[in-house]
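From the shared-data thread, chain only:
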Amino acid sequence: MSDVTIQTRENGPFLVTGPAKVVDHQGNEFDLKGKDTFALCRCAASKNRPFCDGSHKECGFVAGETA
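Structure, as tokens:
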């Protein structure tokens, strides 16, 4: 399996790159439509959670974690 990278974006989502799957609390897998790059919401304002829809830009979300 290839490497998966999860990058924190300053004041934005987690950017996931690589072959990954996202599974809910009941074990159901989300359809990623073949995408190898997708963004996961951190601001909790997305209407498409767990995925980012850009709402962090309007809600004032601030996060600047560095590794």
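The first helix runs from residue 56 to 59.
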